[in-house]
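Example 4.3 (complexes with small molecules)
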Amino acid sequence: MSDWGLKKEYLHSTRQHLWNDDYFEFLVKSVWKINKPVRIIDFGCGYGYLAQMLMPLIPDGSSYKGIDISEELIKEANGIFESDKERIRFEVSDLNEYVACPEYDVVICQAVLRHIPNPVEILDKMIGSAKSGGLIICIEPSRRMENSGIYLDSTDFDPFENDDFLRQKWIDEIKTGGRDYQIGLRIPAFMKQLGLTNIGVRINDYVDYVGGENKSEIKRFLNDHSVNPVYENSDGFVAARCQVITYGYKQ
Ligand SMILES: C[S@@+](CC[C@H](N)C(=O)[O-])C[C@H]1O[C@@H](n2cnc3c(N)ncnc32)[C@H](O)[C@@H]1O
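Answer. The structure with S-adenosylmethionine bound is encoded below.
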């Protein structure tokens, strides 16, 4: 497993270009209808990005706990939320060792199940952490959709150039019990198998667009989306984030 504490810069950069605030607010208020105080747990919380997004939108009296295996990221999260530690707490914890207790109204993860080899086991623990009637939310990508959402405005650009590589990687990783590049699109089926009800699926509407002028933004884009630097002279850079948001309720 890679150490995300060493990829802090990448994590911060990508999180600044991941969500439209209005769409996230729409999910919280109109789709999930979080309109009374809730207790939230965030599996694989990183430096607490979802706490930053969620806490201003939910009713007073709510609380949040983030757990992550990276000591470095939890240290950073504790620093960011130093002044709010009554409501927002972080804990170093390996999800494989974590003992679930049904005490949360909302159990959430973002971009975590795609990085681990046993996503169904961890999803089961997420469900085990929810109270009866609790909401379980997984925000995860499908690498294939992500790849098809990239467009570079250049006559040299071949939108299919990564297809064979990704296909082989997906097959190899599934065979060897590694991570699943299509996880975002598989979660609805996993949630159903594990007994969740009222399952809903959405797509994050964020599109990262950079025009051809600002060199440092172009560099940032190429790095964030792992695009070959040979395309740095394109006239426009577009990447649809394509995160799949799946949610369901515990009976
Ligand atoms: C791509 S980052 C996402 C972080 C955060 N959810 C976000 O969206 O900003 C994946 C996170 O999963 C955490 N992670 C991976 N395996 C884990 C495990 N076994 N137990 C706890 N956390 C884990 C990593 O340390 C990392 O912070």
